[in-house]
Amino acid sequence: MAHTFDDLVEMQRAADEAHARVRELKDTYGRPTAHPWSPDQTETYEKAWQDWWKLADEVQAAVTKHAGDESKSRFDVEAAVRTKARHPEPEPAEDVVA
Asked: Is the pTM of this model over 0.70?
């Protein structure tokens, strides 16, 4: 399936959110070698990690295809997608009538 640039940005945002969840769990649970995790913690972490990995893999594949379809550098497309996903332009302020 062909993805637009905006699709890629949304995919990257989803992958970034999933990665943030993985980091949050790791911070909450601590290192498993220092403080053994319960089976529930291990399962929760593994599920979050797999979700993140799947989303990251999908966005990478989509970026590669998009770059090829557009005859652009994959590196440039990926950089543009990550920049737009992580640093969106602020919404223009509406004029307020007092």
From this structure: yes
DSSP 8-state assignment for residue 33: T
State how far the Cα of 32 lies from the Cα of 15, in Å rounded to an integer.
24
Query: Cα(6)–Cα(22) distance, rounded to whole angstroms?
Result: 25
pLDDT 10s digits, 11-45:
999 999 999 999 999 999 999 888 899 999 999 99
Q: List C-alpha distances in Å: 70 to 7, 38, 65, 75.
A: 15, 48, 9, 13
Q: Look at the block and give the residue holding tokens 């790791």.
A: 26
Distance CA 37, CA 24 (A): 15
In contact, 29 and 45? CB cutoff 8 Å: yes
